[in-house]
Amino acid sequence: MSERLRLGVNIDHVATIRNARGGDHPDPVRAAEIVARVGGDGITAHLREDRRHIRDDDLQRIQDATDLPLNLEMAATEEMLEIALRHRPHAACIVPEKREERTTEGGLDAAGLHNQLAPVVTRLADAGIRVSLFIEASERQIDAALRLGAPVVEFHTGEYAHAFIYGGHDKVASELKRIGDMAALAAKNGIEPHAGHGLTYDNVQPIAAIPQIAELNIGHYLVGEAIFVGLENAVTRMRSLMDEAR
Ligand code: PXP
Which principal EC class is assigned to this enzyme (predicted)? Predict the structure, then answer.
């Protein structure tokens, strides 16, 4: 498989900066329009329970402003399910959510939460929304995704990204092997693997080189880099690093 690897740009942190002053600038919709213009393949947005970045009205405005597929990251709650069913994004990625965490700190325990997740996955799928589960790259979680009938999993690359800075060569290699092996296992079972969390210019290429991975979702680094070089340049550079690695 050497199809073009898709880049979903997570625009949450444009909204984080906006919300710091309570006004309407910078607008994540403008970011979405730039992503569309420079060849991003999708917009990813996480509507958190506490609305710390993306807010309800942003979703509709993003959908109205671009034709790019929207990937809504959401906790498996009744409130978020209702919002997803109302907006009908292209995809919904179910993530674990703790109020006190700074970001999504680990994967969803799809195995342990089967009974809670099953009706959410079914209702999203019945509405034509492509369901993804944000999981650790492990056999147990892929097996759970299979039992839940999820067509997509997104591997949490946080450990890999952390190892890249603090872990040393062996730890990076073992994380990469784990993600690569699990991408192959998912694909063999008909599940499309994606990956995301903590990806940067420096660490993206080994992940992008894993042939089964179809999509990367990248946010914090791109928005941070955009402060220095502009969002257009940041997305364009990430895009070409991903293409080079393929
Ligand atoms: N994918 C998922 C499911 C996420 O929850 C996040 C973080 O919100 C990302 C990708 C993007 O991670 P980062 O902002 O570290 O690039």
Answer: transferase
Q: Confirm whether residue 50 is marked as ligand binding.
A: no
Ligand 1 near 18 CB (within 6 A)? no
Enter the pTM of the model.
Answer: 0.96
Domain ranges of the chain: 6-245
Alpha helix positions (H), the chain: 12-21, 28-37, 56-65, 78-87, 114-126, 139-148, 158-162, 168-188, 204-208, 220-229, 231-245
**Domain at 6-245: CATH code:** 3.20.20.70
| 154 is a catalytic site residue | no
Catalytic annotation present for 25: no
Provide the 3-class DSSP secondary structure of residue 134. strand
The CA distance from 43 to 6, in Å, is: 11
Contacts of 82 (CB under 8 A, 6+ apart): none
Q: What is the pLDDT along the chain (246 residues), one digit of tens a residue?
A: 457 999 999 999 999 999 999 999 999 999 999 999 999 999 999 999 999 999 999 999 999 999 999 999 999 999 999 999 999 999 999 999 876 777 777 899 999 999 999 999 999 999 999 999 999 999 999 999 999 999 999 999 999 999 999 989 999 999 999 999 999 999 999 999 999 999 999 999 999 999 999 999 999 999 999 999 999 999 999 999 999 999
Q: Is 73 in the pocket of ligand 1 (CB under 6 A)?
A: yes
Q: Is 114 annotated as a binding residue?
A: no
Q: Are 80 and 69 in contact (CB under 8 A)?
A: no
Say which amino acid occupies 176. L
